[in-house]
Design a protein that fits this description.
Strand 21 and strand 22 form a beta hairpin. Among the domains are: 143-309, 6 Propeller (Neuraminidase); 446-527, Immunoglobulins (Immunoglobulin-like), CATH 2.60.40; 536-614, Immunoglobulin-like (Sandwich), CATH 2.60.40.10. The radius of gyration is 33 Å and the shape is elongated. The chain contains no helices and 54 strands. The strands form 12 sheets. Strands 21, 22, 23, 24, 25 and 26 form a 6-stranded antiparallel β-sheet that branches. It has 615 residues and is mainly beta.
Length: 615
């Protein structure tokens, strides 16, 4: 759920003049963000985008170098897409497709196809500046071309990549696993029947990785009866399950099942639960179907749509199994929410009828979902803030002045409902990679003060951090309606002396990298700049071995006395008492300095020293 900004009425009106205009949480379309790359005649298309739960991630795309398409990466750190870097250095052959997966701490896995080869690269993590390792050749079959790569990475950093390779009937589905920084390709195809075509075009494979580091792979495959079917198989480590599961159906509601394809799959953190969606013909009509994974088998099918024709289903789930499926219908983009393992009735996303919408979904761990689609050359998006609330209004995400969207759109989500949407825009002679983001306002900071006393000359105001995954927050501190200062830390010593006879209102404003603000609750702070007063009374005869009685009776009309410290002077020992002091001490012969320090609650102190001659 989004955290909305509201300045409490308790803050003095004069403080409003020193605050920048408050920005609501929402979309920052491509027009509000500089292009990741371009415009340039060398840019081809977006490959993929993924965000990890901690808000890091990356975007890959194809761009020509000397007329040949190569793979480029823009890392996403601190809420910003960074300068592009080439991924396939040293690879002469051109890339045909690229995909990316992200995990926490900046870990990235990238795979791409290049002629007969498949390559992989890794950013091992450990922060935004981790080295890009690779490229590593993970597959090569000179007999034909590779295509249609897919990749996913679990929360433990293990990734799996799949692709179509030369094989029986024209293509097989192959799988590789990434553990740490090493790729290991499984030596045989995953197909049910390696003699039949699988994994290319609408039969392309998809992979999902659970929290335990194992995978589910789904793909389309030809069948002996001439009807294309959709299958799923588990991959544990580098071993396939011996029992692939057919997802496609012999019939639906009495209508005979026809060709099935366009499968997508996602899994929860617990690998025993997930969903698969696919397209299948029934009685001559194209339908979008979902099936829930429960353990080792799939539950009965669920029709995601209200009826034919629909196609191109896509799926996004969070680690708890809540999410969104999108697909194309007769008038454009459709979406069905998955809430508590039940798909809700599909709803239309676009306000204006359109063809070729190609919608794509993303789901955050915070239960927000987003759908993005193409419409009349523009990229549109809608956010659903909660499963029980309707979609927000449609937003144009692309940048109008750069031209129409070109090629696929990619979308990713983080833990707290931050989303990024990437697209290529413009004609082939002048194309740019642009991004739009849905950025939450910061979490509320927590001022650590309620009628607290401070020394106005060296006051140190403290607060608990507001939560934000996309960059360092800046904090503006307001005391008594005036700005006391700004900092990126969690405390502030104002540059001016603060004072007040009455408690002053104290508030902290968290400001994120895009200027969005969230105000803390209002707390009160009192300032006492006066030192406490006291007298030291010493009773008894000043003779060696005779105990002297030391009495200190301080008073403080401000914050009040906090502590009295006495050092008798014949050792380093300090005796502490609360509010007042009474003690006895026997000296040896000599001259000693009795030191008394009184502190008040605000931190002011006064020191007195008394010379004692002991005979």
């Amino acid at each position: 759920m989004f955290r909305r900004l509201a300045l409490p009425a308790l803050i003095a009106l004069s403080a409003l003049a020193v605050l920048p205009a408050a920005a609501s949480a929402g979309w920052f379309p491509a027009a509000a963000n500089p292009p990741v790359d371009g415009p340039s005649p060398d840019i081809v298309q977006v490959g993929g985008l993924d965000l990890a739960r901690d808000g890091s991630g990356g975007l890959v795309y194809l761009k020509k170098v000397d007329g040949v398409p190569h793979v480029f990466l823009s890392r996403f750190n601190g809420g910003v897409f960074r300068a592009p870097e080439r991924v396939d250095n040293g690879v002469g052959g051109g890339a045909s497709a690229a995909v990316i997966a992200a995990a926490d701490t900046g870990r990235l896995a990238i795979a791409w196809t290049s002629g007969s080869r498949v390559y992989g690269s890794v950013v091992a993590g450990n922060g935004p500046s981790g080295p890009l390792l690779g490229p590593t050749e993970i597959f090569n079959d000179p007999s034909g071309a590779t295509s249609d790569p897919a990749i996913d990475m679990g929360i433990n950093g293990t990734a799996y990549a799949t692709w179509a390779a030369p094989g029986g009937g024209g293509a097989d589905v192959r799988v590789a696993r990434l553990q740490d920084v090493a790729w290991q390709t499984i030596g045989v195809p995953i197909d049910v029947d390696p003699a039949r075509a699988a994994g290319r075009g609408v039969q392309r494979s998809r992979v999902a990785v659970s929290g335990d580091g194992n995978a589910l792979v789904a793909w389309g495959e030809d069948n002996a009866d001439g009807r294309r079917r959709v299958w799923e198989r588990r991959v544990t480590g580098v071993s396939f399950s011996a029992f692939p599961q057919e997802l496609s159906l012999p019939n639906l509601g009495g209508a005979p099942g026809g060709a099935a394809d366009s499968v997508d799959i996602d899994v929860e953190d617990d690998g025993g639960f997930g969903w698969a969606v696919f397209r299948q013909d029934f009685g001559g009509g194209s339908r979008s179907i979902g099936r829930r994974l429960l353990g080792l088998t799939f539950d009965p099918p669920v029709a995601l749509d209200g009826g034919p024709p629909t196609a191109n289903p896509r799926l996004a789930l969070n680690g708890r199994g809540q999410g969104l499926s999108t697909f194309e219908g007769g008038s454009g983009a459709l979406a069905a929410i998955n809430y508590n393992d039940v798909f809700q009735p599909a709803v239309g996303l676009n306000f204006t009828p359109t063809a070729g919408a190609a919608p794509v979904p993303a789901a955050s761990e915070h239960r927000e979902v987003v759908a993005a689609w193409q419409q009349g050359g523009e990229v549109k998006g809608r956010l659903k803030p909660l499963p029980t609330k309707p979609f927000d209004n449609e937003v144009t995400l692309s940048r109008p002045d750069l031209g129409p969207a070109a090629g696929p759109v990619a979308v990713g989500a983080d833990l707290l409902g931050g989303f990024a949407v990437a697209m290529a825009q413009g004609p082939a002679t002048s194309r740019a990679i642009t991004v739009a983001v849905q950025d939450n306002v910061p979490g509320r900071p927590g001022p650590i003060a309620r009628n607290a006393w401070q020394n106005g000359r060296r006051a140190k105001l403290r607060w608990r951090a507001g939560r934000d995954l996309w960059g360092q927050l800046r904090y503006r501190v307001i005391v008594g309606g005036k700005v006391a200062g700004e900092t990126t830390g969690l405390s502030l010593v104002p540059k001016v002396t603060l004072s007040g006879k009455r408690p002053l209102k104290y508030q902290v404003i968290a400001i994120d990298v895009r200027g969005q603000q969230t105000a803390s609750p209002v707390r009160s702070v009192r300032f006492d700049n006066l030192r406490p007063k006291f007298r030291v009374r010493i009773g008894g005869k000043r003779r060696a071995g005779r105990a002297l009685h030391v009495v200190v009776k301080p008073r403080d009309r401000g914050s009040g006395v906090r502590e009295v410290r006495v050092r008798y002077g014949d050792s380093k020992r300090v005796v502490k008492q609360r509010r007042r002091f009474s003690g006895r001490h026997a000296y040896r012969r000599g001259t000693f300095t009795l030191k008394v320090t009184v502190y008040d609650v605000a931190g002011n102190r006064r020191i007195k020293k008394v010379k004692l001659h002991i005979t």
